[in-house]
Amino acid sequence: MEAFWQKVAKGRVRRLLMLDYDGTLSPFVAERLKAYPYPGLPGILERILDSSKNRVVIISGRNALEVKELLGLNVPVEIWGGHGMERLLPSGRLVQVPVSRESEKVFHQVEEWADHEGLSRSLEEKHGSMAFHVRGMGKSRAARLLEEATEFFKEVSSGSDLKVNAFDGGVELRTRGVDKGRVVRELLEDFDKNCACSYYGDDLTDEDAFSALDGSGVSFLVRKKFRQTNADVWIIPPDELKECLARYIL
Fold first, then answer.
1. Do 182 and 1 contact (CB within 8 A), yes or no?
2. Which SS3 state, helix, strand or coil, does residue 45 take?
3. Distance between CA atoms of 113 and 2, rounded to whole angstroms?
4. 91, 182: one domain
5. Are 57 and 18 in contact (CB under 8 A)?
6. Residues spanned by the domain of 61
7. Of the residues 13, 68, 100, 209, which has the maximum number of CB atoms within 10 A of its CB?
8. Are 206 and 191 in contact, with CB atoms under 8 Å apart?
9. Listed residues 175, 205, 233: the one ending a domain
10. What are the pLDDT digits (tens) for 113-164?
11. What confidence score (pLDDT) does residue 214 get?
């Protein structure tokens, strides 16, 4: 680790800083649209972005514009949303991967199911995916609904280009082949081995990114409780996260 931080500290070294949003830059909350970043983090990120040597990229399962609004930075930042289905450039241009008609039909079936079961508030519609959240529910109810949602998602997506993926606090229907690891690999193409590349994430969906970074940088598991992971380092938010990010301010 010390070798990595020494590389980060070198003025001539380019740095690629990749960050998940929910659970990493912000604590988990039951109301998804109130998941604001930890106090002080936006200011740290803005100072990191002040340096042309730093490229900061947010990689989230949320829609990119939603992340931008929640993050509330006073400077532009690159955001990949929907696990890579869309990309918000610092210029403000939003680029989206087209969603197939077949997938749209499946998503419509999911919406009808959630409406019929009175679970629409637990459903998050995103570009290229649908997520069902159980965070904030009682333990037994959450387990039952998560099992029901998972089985229904598998049923309606059978034979389609969609895949069922679990995450911390829910289950998601997502386009096959789309994940954070793919985003990381694409970003790494612009950097050589002499650059300081890192990824910070907390969820099961971040494991693809940790694996993709293997050998090309350092991956950080950002969680208050440790779990088995492919990440190189475990840090506890928000204090240890802030301490790490402050080291990119040069």
1. no
2. helix
3. 51
4. yes
5. yes
6. 2-97+178-246
7. 209
8. no
9. 175
10. 999 999 999 999 999 999 999 988 999 999 999 999 999 999 999 999 999 9
11. 86
Mind listing the pLDDT tens digit for each residue in 231-250?
Answer: 999 999 999 999 999 999 98
Q: Is 177 helix (H, G, I), strand (E, B) or coil?
A: coil
CATH number at residue 171: 3.30.70
3-state secondary structure 117-176: CCCHHHEEEECCEEEEECCCCCHHHHHHHHHHHHHHHHHHHCCCCEEEEEECCEEEEEEC
- Give the end of a domain, one of 123, 151, 175: 175
For residues 79 and 171, membership in a common domain is answered with: no
Are residue 138 and residue 195 in the same domain, yes or no?
no
* 186 shares a domain with 93: yes
- Are the CB atoms for 120 and 110 separated by under 8 Å? no
Ranges assigned E (strand) in the chain: 15-19, 54-59, 78-81, 86-88, 94-96, 123-126, 129-133, 162-167, 170-175, 196-201, 218-222, 233-235
Q: Which residue has the tokens 């070198």?
A: 10
